[in-house]
Amino acid sequence: LFSAANIFSSLKLVYIFSVNPYLGPLQVSLSRMVLDIMKFFFLYVLVLFAFSCGMNQLLWYYADMEKQRCPDAKTMTPVSTGNEPKTPDPDACIVWRRFANLFETSQTLFWAVFGLIDLDNFELAGIKTFTRFWGMLMFGTYSVINIVVLLNLLIAMMNHSYQLISERA
């Protein structure tokens, strides 16, 4: 909490910029851009939720199968509910969480924007080729919409705000 207060108290110095003739318009455009970012954030959350619902519905079963390959912390043996022997895989303890529920799927898609999720995350235990194809297609569609369309929309909104402020200054 104290660290957040330090950040906000440092950002309070931005109000000093309004006195300066060069930095004043930047301070006004910054406040206008914050409103643009909030509008954009609403649209982004809508797209994120839509794709999270779809990918979670498609991949939750295979994430549960991957969870069964995760070794128990105490015995280091895989948790098995069926008769088939399962080989322990320590990486399965991380992989299964990516599509386990709606919240985890949303986090996975959010961090994919920053390049932290790759296509190897779709190699889940027991996943069929057809299902993997549709999962990767949905992920690719999300990436294109998010990176190409929404990011350019945000840039255009911020550019428009800056143009309005610079014309009035």
TrEMBL record:
<dbReference type="GO" id="GO:0005886">
    <property type="term" value="C:plasma membrane"/>
</dbReference>
<dbReference type="Pfam" id="PF00520">
    <property type="entry name" value="Ion_trans"/>
</dbReference>
<protein>
    <recommendedName>
        <fullName>Ion transport domain-containing protein</fullName>
    </recommendedName>
</protein>
<keyword id="KW-0812">Transmembrane</keyword>
<dbReference type="GO" id="GO:0070679">
    <property type="term" value="F:inositol 1,4,5 trisphosphate binding"/>
</dbReference>
<keyword id="KW-0406">Ion transport</keyword>
<dbReference type="GO" id="GO:0051480">
    <property type="term" value="P:regulation of cytosolic calcium ion concentration"/>
</dbReference>
<keyword id="KW-0407">Ion channel</keyword>
<keyword id="KW-1133">Transmembrane helix</keyword>
<keyword id="KW-0813">Transport</keyword>
<dbReference type="GO" id="GO:0034703">
    <property type="term" value="C:cation channel complex"/>
</dbReference>
<feature type="transmembrane region" description="Helical">
    <location>
        <begin position="133"/>
        <end position="155"/>
    </location>
</feature>
<feature type="transmembrane region" description="Helical">
    <location>
        <begin position="41"/>
        <end position="63"/>
    </location>
</feature>
<dbReference type="InterPro" id="IPR005821">
    <property type="entry name" value="Ion_trans_dom"/>
</dbReference>
<feature type="domain" description="Ion transport">
    <location>
        <begin position="3"/>
        <end position="168"/>
    </location>
</feature>
<keyword id="KW-0472">Membrane</keyword>
<dbReference type="GO" id="GO:0015279">
    <property type="term" value="F:store-operated calcium channel activity"/>
</dbReference>
<dbReference type="InterPro" id="IPR002153">
    <property type="entry name" value="TRPC_channel"/>
</dbReference>
